Amino acid sequence: MEEYISISTLNDFIFCPYSIYLHNVYMETDETMYHASPQTRGKLAHEATDNKTSTNRSDVLLSLPVYSERFGIMGKIDQYKVKEKRLIERKYQLKKIFQGQIYQLWAQMFCMREMGYQVESIAFYEISTNKMIPVDMPNSEDEKEFEEFITRFRNYDPAQNFTPNPNKCEHCIYCNLCDKTEMENVYS
Ligand code: SF4
Prior knowledge:
This protein has 6 helices and 8 strands, in the order E-H-H-H-E-E-E-E-E-H-E-E-H-H.
């Protein structure tokens, strides 16, 4: 059986596939080494959900572990509103929604459906502005695109040559640990 891919790494893979390799190398070490400020705030937003402090309503499922055998992915959802059949991912701030973040939401939705939950709508919730941002449900083309993306992720070889993108490196939390660049990140 192949290893399951963590849903939380999908956005990082699009940002830079090599960062996933670095994450796997350093994940056993002290998190303060690579969790710079923007990530820390996002992490705290998630902890409110993980510690189940954000709501006590019984019609809301929080931090439910999910997995999909079909895609070989696993992770946790933020919120599922049972009556509305709506899956929600909380973010502290969403100036722009990246494709990888949409893939993460789709991934959670595919997992929930495979586990027998009905999901009729998906959305991001921006904590800083108290705003709900609906996202289109994936159609069959989107599902194919997602499947191909997961295959690319699974087959990625960190030994292959690539040219780092300096614009990404300077905002990368692994920059100071990465052997592909001499740059410092902007959080140093
Ligand atoms: S520092 Fe650059 S090359 Fe290294 S993981 Fe980050 S984005 Fe990728």
